[in-house]
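USER: Write out one fold?

ASSISTANT:
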Amino acid sequence: MIRQGVILASGLGSRLNSEGRNEPKPLMPVGGMALIERVITLMQAAGIEKIVVVVGYRGDQIKEYIRNSNIGGVVFADNSEYNKKNGISLLRAKDLLEDEPFLLSMSDHIFSNDFFVDFLKKAEEKLEKYEVVLSVDRNIEGVFDLDDATKVVTENGEITTIGKELPTYDAVDTGLFLCKPAVFPKLQEIYDTKGDVSISDVMGKEAESGMFACAEMTGHLWQDVDTPSMKNEAEERLIDNYLKREHSANFFSNKFFIKIAKETALVLFKKEHFDWDFAHVAVFIVSLVITAVALFEALPWLSILPLFISTFLFYLDKIRSNVRTVAVKNENFLLSWKFGFILSVLPAVLPACGTVFVGLPLVAGMFAVALAKHLGFMDFLLSQRDELPDVPESLLKTFLSPSLFWIVYSVLVLVLPEWIIGFVPFLYFILSPFFYEKRR
């Protein structure tokens, strides 16, 4: 099992400026998450216990960010020659590594959440014969900014040639390697001779000696992030990669909200350091104002609007969490979708049967379900419902989705008599979590 890794994060990254903040490229937020943090968390998810991060340009900022983020298992190597080629950075990691194979990644690439795990499954067995295994992609037409990509020629599972200027090639380098320590003497030899060395230089030596294998990762998401246009493309691909796996995304109501949420997410991601809590607070305030007006004027149909906003935020949060390698946790109940839902439907639930004496217990029941996990009695509630059918997840994500409920609710609140409207959101809210929780 591979237990150590190296991340090269020492370069200038001058083509990618972070909103004038003068940040090093590894700290550039892509999809709401710093590039370096993405790679670290992906390595750790693949079982890497010790990660050597090689820093150079603005290295103190990178170190401070990782420490402040409470990311463990990371040690740092310094490369004062960061204005030279990237092979020197790898050399600087040597003394911090054990004499065993290691995973090597660039810090300025994004990968799908399953990329590292799947790569190691394919690559580790090849180390019995080879010194280096490189992840490659044969979908050449799908590579963004192909001119900047490193190309490779493969034959029978081996890489015979590597370089950016190859006239003919059959795959491209995705930026993830599995290496034996045997690469270091070759790096050192080139560096001692030329005073500089790149990763491609030593990989060319490995190819010449027949010790360079490839692991095909075609179909997995990856992308180099070197320019603003590449950053924008990477964020859109991250979202599309999540939606491709989300089978319920094509259901008509989900599709409607997801489309709006995706375009909004892309706009907010461009702002890079956008305060996402601000969006939740803004939705809370708007919902509170509209709900107050609807209650004061006895207009239950007006609750359609805050429920729409809360539902939209639900799908925006799903996209935001799923383009990350670590999901975002919203610990503030007042800013959660559950509270937003209850707040939005108050104008319909409170007057149920024409009296708050019926509506208040309904609201209390919804709050009890919403807070069940926090109060520690969700397991007890679920134990009382062992006879619930085991509903397929695909059906839950469509017919119990917030998006479909909003459509159904909008119609019913306009056509049903006021005394019965309040029971609709109450029944939906207390039943759907039980079905979801029963499957988990």
User: Anything to note?
Assistant: Residues 268 and 274 are 7 Å apart (CA to CA). The chain has a mean pLDDT of 90. The two ends are 29 Å apart (CA to CA). The first helix runs from residue 35 to 45.
